[in-house]
């Protein structure tokens, strides 16, 4: 746990927000299924996909620091991937070299951002960087299993917009297999109009759906709906949906940011 003075540095520097919504429409079964469809089975910049894409193998993370504050960034990433691993029940760990990694997270500067996007994502990705604060991408194999991913965060740009934590949380979560942003999903970090810097209760449920043992990579919308309907009924009965907003705050980032 961070010393108290560092917590104040975090809050002043990152200007993060977390707002609990009083609108609980997202707890309705039909809303949850539709939210999963929008976020997991769609692509932000392409109509391709429309199937479940997720990691089937352990995720091995390498942090590439091209700027200062190495320990700060590492701590933020560690807190979030620990939370994700718990929600997904899927192993995520750091590795000691880039050769061992299948998820690379680059902390860089805005002046070098375009060059690094071209190197990691390809030259075409540079065309969609304008207006973005940070970027991520993942690659799948023929079975739609995610095999590798990369995230680029220009730290000076993210801090200028007060979105360093948001970039870390949203981009890492998206490369878990929830790649699409949608204004139809609220409250969620995948909705640009939601004042969320951290995962909402809805986001936690979406991750649990995606990594449910009943689902597998390559399943279509028609394939997943019966399993999701059954899972959501079970969650209604055992209280998982009702307590989702409270349970999501078990992550270390929440008390760190004052929640």
Shape: globular
CATH C-level of the largest domain? Alpha Beta
CATH domain fold name of the largest domain: Collagenase (Catalytic Domain)
Instruction: Characterize the quaternary organization of these chains.
Output: single chain
The count of domains is: 2
Kindly estimate the percentage of residues that lie in beta strands according to DSSP.
Answer: 5-15%
What structural class do the secondary elements suggest?
alpha/beta
User: Which regions contain 5 or more consecutive residues with pLDDT less than 50?
Assistant: 1-22
Round the Cα radius of gyration to an integer and report it: 18 Å
What does this structure look like?
This protein is α/β, with parallel strands linked by helices and 259 residues long. It is built from ten helices and five strands, in the order H-H-E-H-E-E-H-E-E-H-H-H-H-H-H. Helix 3 packs parallel to helix 6. The relative contact order is 0.20.
